[in-house]
Amino acid sequence: MRDVHYDPQEESPYECFDCGTILLAERHPLRCPDCNGTMRNRRTPLE
Predict the structure, then answer these.
(1) Residues of 16-25 as b/e, b for ≥16 C-beta within 10 angstroms?
(2) Contact status, residue 24 vs residue 39, Cβ threshold 8 Å
(3) Where are the domains of the chain?
(4) Where are the beta strands (DSSP E) in the chain?
(5) How far is residue 35's CA from residue 39's CA, in Å, rounded to a whole number?
(6) How far apart are CA 40 and CA 22, in angstroms?
(7) Which member of 3, 11, 30, 39 has the lowest number of beta carbons within 10 Å of its beta carbon?
C-alpha cells in the first residue's frame, strides 16, 4: 500500500446527485449552481 498524495489547494471534481453537473472546485460546494442539488466529491467512492 502506498501513501496518496494530497494537496489541499488542488481542485477536485464534484458531481451533483440530482442533475449530474460536474464542477471543479478547491472547496466543497454545498449546492449545485444549476439545480441547487447536493454535491459529492467524485474522488470519494460510493458505498
Answers:
(1) beeeeeebee
(2) no
(3) 1-47
(4) 12-16, 22-25, 39-41
(5) 10
(6) 10
(7) 3
User: Distance (Å, rounded) from C-alpha 20 to C-alpha 27?
Assistant: 18
The CATH architecture assigned to 1-47 reads Single Sheet (2.20)
Per-residue pLDDT tens digits for 1-47: 566 666 656 788 999 999 999 999 988 899 999 999 999 998 887 76
What's the CA gap between 33 and 23, in Å, rounded? Answer: 9
Helices (H), the chain: none
Question: Which pTM does this prediction carry?
Answer: 0.71
